[in-house]
Design goal:
Blueprint: H1 5-8, H2 21-25, E1 30-37, E2 40-45, E3 50-57, H3 64-77, E4 83-84, E5 89-94, H4 100-109, E6 125-126, H5 140-156, E7 167-170, E8 184-189, H6 198-204, H7 207-213, E9 219-222, E10 225-231, H8 241-245, E11 258-263, E12 278-285, H9 292-308, H10 315-322, H11 324-331
Parallel strand pairs: 6-7, 7-8
Antiparallel strand pairs: 1-2, 2-3, 3-5, 4-5, 8-11, 9-10, 11-12
Helix pairs in contact: 3-4, 5-9
Bound molecules: iron/sulfur cluster.
């Protein structure tokens, strides 16, 4: 059968087709919800119907066999409906209160902790890191695991923090881990420009495509040999995009690659509106597999936030209230010139001048 363009070009299917029956029936008519325990939210509709969300953290990648097992739980207790969220959770909408504990038991028996609701640590977003991607400067999955091991109790506790904490880990500045909008973010950093291997570029890469790929216009044809390129080191921002196009431009450097730490981002519109995370530690060396020093810094920031923030105040809102100067003082993190935003389009956030001001 040959389908016409109209038949093929239908876009994404209507999400309402995939809603569980209780959500479909009460769509737009939910009265309130309450966080009844770690990882469980009770929803009550105007009609009197109830539904319970059970949320568990899962890795970014899971085997088909694991998905099948999760679907079996959904078949048994949730009329066959299951939801995988962008924050690497699996969510079960359980229509009957009596089934909630069975779902928790079954999903935890698979090794996935139930939690991440209300004022807890939300499931940590991560990119794939070294295992599957070619641009990362660090190993996001093992950093994520180390953070989960440290914050496991806070993931399961609805009252762990003054407000929710969202953490995210990206292997490089392309940020597949949604790090720019997270309360605490770890981002892999390359600190050396890609090495141009002329013999490979000449044989396997398209020079015009390579030049066009660079967001900073840092690549130009090599004088005397137009089949290869040179990089303007002053312009390069170490994103690794050129390496995505051409194997002859490797960017990895075991000595110079590492991680940076950013804080204060959020997506929600509540109170202060969305905030972008800001750089507080420009570089820490890669220390797989346990990342003791990264975990130590994150633990310190979280504890100080917990002790000083007001109820319902996100990390970024707390820092903006006390001021970034004070944040650097009380966390004892040395302020570095790398935190000063002097990018050409940074007028909105300009933090330099004769009267130095960071906020
Ligand atoms: Fe351009 Fe990024 Fe390659 Fe640097 S790493 S040359 S900024 S594409």
């Amino acid at each position: 059968m040959v389908l016409s363009l109209d038949e093929l070009d239908f876009g994404p299917p209507d999400y309402k087709e995939f809603l569980p029956p209780v959500s479909k029936k009460n769509y737009g008519k939910w009265k309130y919800h309450e966080h009844i325990k770690g990882g469980v939210i009770k929803h009550v509709a105007e009609s009197g119907d109830e539904a319970y969300t059970v949320r568990a953290a899962i890795p970014k990648y899971v085997a088909a066999e694991t998905v099948n097992k999760l679907c079996d739980i959904a078949e048994k207790y949730c009329e066959g409906y299951i939801k995988f969220t962008s924050r690497h959770n699996v969510s079960f909408i359980v229509p009957k209160a009596k089934d909630v504990d069975s779902v928790i038991k079954d999903v935890e028996a698979m090794g996935f902790p139930v939690g991440g609701t209300d004022h807890s640590l939300k499931a940590i977003i991560q990119c794939v890191g070294w295992t599957h991607c070619h641009t990362p400067a660090t190993d996001s999955p093992s950093i994520t695991k180390a953070l989960y091991e440290e914050f496991y109790d806070e993931f399961k506790d609805n009252n762990a923090f003054p407000e929710r904490i969202k953490m995210a880990v990206s292997g490089c500045i392309n940020m597949c881990g949604a790090t720019h909008a997270s309360d605490i973010a770890i981002i892999g950093m390359h600190r050396k420009v890609p090495t141009v291997i002329d013999e490979i570029v000449e044989k396997f890469c398209s020079v015009p495509n390579l030049i066009k790929s660079c967001p900073k216009y840092a690549i130009k044809p090599k004088r005397g040999n137009l089949k290869t390129v040179v990089i303007d080191e002053e312009k390069c921002m170490y994103c690794g995009i050129c390496y995505s196009l051409c194997e002859g431009m490797p960017i990895h450097n075991p000595e110079y690659d590492g991680v940076s730490i950013w804080v204060g981002g959020k997506v929600s519109n509540t109170r202060k509106g969305p905030l972008l995370a800001r750089l507080i530690i420009p570089f820490m060396p890669n220390e797989p597999p346990h990342w003791e020093n990264v975990v130590k810094v994150v633990r310190k920031i979280v504890d100080i936030y917990k002790a000083n923030a007001e109820e319902d105040e996100r990390v970024g809102e707390w820092i903006e209230r006390i001021g970034w100067e004070k944040f650097f003082q009380i966390t004892d993190i040395p302020f570095s010139d790398k935190s000063i935003d002097d990018w050409i389009f940074s007028v909105e956030t300009y933090r330099k001048g004769t009267n130095f001001k960071m906020v």
